[in-house]
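Thread: quick sanity check before group meeting

JM: Hey all, I'm pulling together slides for Thursday and realized we never actually wrote out the predicted structure for the chain we discussed last week. Dropping the sequence here so it's in one place. If anyone has concerns about the input, flag it before I start.
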Amino acid sequence: QKLVNDRQYYYQVEAFDRAGNESEPSDSRMGMPIKPGPTPVGGIVATDTTWYSGASPYVLTEDVLVLEKATLTLEPGCKVLSSGAGIMVKGKIIALGEEESRISLGGMPINNGAMENPPKPGEKAEDPKQKRAMWKGLVLDGSKGSALSYCLIRDAVTGLTLKSSSPSVASMDLTGNQLGILITESFSRPVISDSLIHENLGAGVVIKTGAKPTLERNEIRANRGFGVEVRDAGGTISQSRIVGNQVGGLIADKAAVEVTGSDIHDNGPFDLRNLAGVGELKALDNFWGTTNVLKILERIKGRVNISSILDGPSGQGKRIDLNILKSPLDKDITRDAYLLAALSPYVVKSPIAIKGATLYIQAGVEVRYNQSQSILVVDDKGSLVADGRPDAPVVFTANAKGAGAGFYTTAVRFASPNQRDSTLRYCVFRFAATPIDIHYGRPAISYCVVKQNSQSGILSRNNSKPTVSYSSIYKNMGTGGIEVYGSSSPKMRRNNIFDNPFAVQSFSSLQVDARENYWGKESPDKSLFIGDVNYGEWSREPLEEAFDVK
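JM (edit): ok, ran it. Output follows.
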């Protein structure tokens, strides 16, 4: 009997052995002969339709629209090619490939600017580096009940768009698209799992406008944009790898997203950045490529809670609980501790001694002091590392609106000769009597602003040897910018020190090195200096590299 393409036939199978014995017939099976591809497709799909692997490749001659009551099914091994047209699904799409028989959707190969003929059955697959046409991609718009697995989507403007759609998406491979996956609108709550989203020309995943997907066990790597971009949306990311993305790992803007149990490292200038919005971003129990907390904090921007980390890749690493402090601060610090921007501001309720430990303060933290003796005291074998940024300095200020100079006594006192070296970088000190009081040690103070204090900006005593550089010290009253006593020998270079009653008052037995600073005029008044102060080689104009804030 001559078989007719696209018609269903039922058949049974019998077997004979060499002696001529015949087996019982098998159960009835259904089969359908299919015309070999390529198969041109386009236009509206109004009824349930199947694209078969045997008729591949399906070549989109125009946009395909699957209407609301229709289902488009792609068989395992099905291939779809396009020179520009896309697939819009308002009904349902079922594209369930298999590990050894994936479904592929991509652009038509291009040869010297012209479209090549689609491959014929039995031909070898195209070179993956072959230049291909860019197409619109696969869009699910209000689709319900769709499912995608083991599909390769490539060469699209946006590989997969989920608009008000919540399909099951698993074991996908999205690569070479301008954007890997776009998830948008509040009815989009898909589960995307076990997928590889890599080497796209822009971001790997963009989540926006109220969408709230669940991303789990995905690898999002080597995209030229962000790994994951979340704006005005939410969702969860777990047990995933976000690594090697050029512009950054994960960026959140007005986003309620949580990231747990994932590997996030080696991404562009940052691994995670929370720009603004709904408060802190929770990023607990992740591996950041290192257990060095300072290095981790350097690559995390904004309000992010990382109170626990992993000491190795997800699934292997053990949890490490960090000593993340919360406001108010009212107990001595005896093990390494951290103040995070996510939990800022911090109120210093009573004097706090830092003993045998280091207090690390993340960029963007604000430390507020009550009106009393509230201070941070760097004591025996203690140290303080306050490492801000130009766009997010660490601020030490009064715990009151409208406070003026002298509201509190001191922000930081370096009190012990046995202390470890401390660093204050990109910090702002204001509204104290004397914010920085150095009894001992050699703290490095750079790119800081010390202003609007009632007594002096910096007080250096005993045999302390602080360095002050690239800072702005001005509008301090009383005794002025910097006071020096005992045998202290501070070194001050490349600062703007001006608009103080005195620039430097030195009662030290040693000469104070205060060269190469700007003192408010082309030629500073000698009356601004008391004691043995070498203020030569001064700058005649404000130093642009010295940090300041409005």
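AS: nice. Helices lie at 293-298. The chain has one helix and 60 strands.
JM: adding both to the slides.
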